[in-house]
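Two proteins follow. First one:
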Amino acid sequence: MRNRLYALEFEKPLRDLDRQLEQLHQLSIENNVDVTSEVSAIERKIEATKRAIYTNLTPWQRVQIARHPKRPFTLDFVEQLFTDFQEFHGDRMYRDDPSMVGGPAKFEGRPVMLIGQQKGRDTKENLMRNFGMPHPEGYRKAMRLMNMAEKFELPIVSFVDTPGAYPGVGSEERHVAEAIAVNQRDMSRLKVPIITVVIGEGGSGGALGIAVADRVLLFENAYYSVISPESCSAILWKDKAFAPKAAAALCLGDSEMLKKNGVIDEIVLEPFGGNHNDPDEAARNLAKALRKHLKALSNLKTGTLIKRRYDRFRNLGVFEEGVMS
């Protein structure tokens, strides 16, 4: 019940059933009444409701799950899967950006460099983290850490969870587009393995600024898109209220399509109903995937690693040539 204290609109029937179950347990304790049959009936109804909800999710509902405030964020996975993490701060040019975190750590005893976008749990923390939308200095800090990883021959693991880079005036004044473009260029040349995990939202260049990787993993209910549904809706229909329609048009949540087209390499399964329902299982699933891909990439020669990474991104998408009449 802990994670359904906050429930998405389509999850509210489950929250109501959880409350009924809790009330029955309380009644049994206070009045010494046997409610076994009633409890069993509600538990069966909960399981049936879960199946009905989570096996028929719409693209917009998957977006909502990807944004769930109880979903594990970057620092949650760092705490669960890594040891000896030391967070580094600042881009050595302007300031530190709390929406982008990173530093060296160990994964199962192996040194790695971690980088990721970080959201907040409540309004105060979200304001401090800028809702996971990095400024230019966030991307420059990330690149500083990636260059350090190359110097010390550390594999890089990046966690993507952003609706996009911050589009404010200050961000534009400090050249956010240039910062992202430099990251894309320089990441393509790094001589160490890079693994990116899309753990929630993967919006636009804000995601790609830390995702030019040898392997891209995507959690089952995460999305990876050229634009967030609200921004798409505002452009096409001049109204953010059409975000659910935009999510469907963008095929958000269709992880199989992303894998088929070579955009991602592996879909990391989530606990039934989403990572917020069982963060421990989510961490175990991710650990298994990271273990496999780190092992595979560590066996590649540097030249092969860089060439495959370059070819990967050059081969994405389709274009046609024609003669204008």
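Second one, unrelated to the first:
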Amino acid sequence: MVKYKWSYLRILFFVIPILYGCSTPVSMIPIIREEPGIIIPRAILSEFDKFKVRRWKYIVIHHSASYKGSASSIDKYHRNIKGWENGLGYDFVIGNGRGSRDGQIEVGGRWNKQIKGAHAGDDEYNEYGVGICLIGNFEKNRPTRSQISSLVYLIKYLQRRCNIPKRNVIMHRDIKDTVCPGRRFPHYKLMARL
């Protein structure tokens, strides 16, 4: 009797998520060990899992190249200065304590609406890449520990939810002629933690 039930559970928990990719809800994903310094309000955790997400292939990491900021300040800039109808070009923003809390993950409207980004400067990566922007200029400074902890948490979540392999976690500079996310961004240390 137990073997009979287990075979059905295996289909539910292991086969169906593979067939449907990103539609796998967080409740079916193995728990990610939370690290100190990660600030994820409960409301945002529910944002992660409230709908079926489209097929994503990449995670693209950026820096804001600014001393301070938040999702709302970048949204205003993208709407009012760049003229982007959908505003904030990224899916997620991670604060540095100057505009939003240090390590705070902010969810952008593009993630909530599951629409393509405006962050990569390349159609393929805007269409299929989840854009994550860390507030700060990593040409001059390093990201904070809390920002990196939150970034690792968010990437692991997205990898599991959307079946994105480690090789498709890329820096903006990997796809465009830019220094973004900056030469002081700890790329190799980040990849070692994934």
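SUMMARY FIELD: The two ends are 39 Å apart (CA to CA). The longest helix spans residues 2-20.
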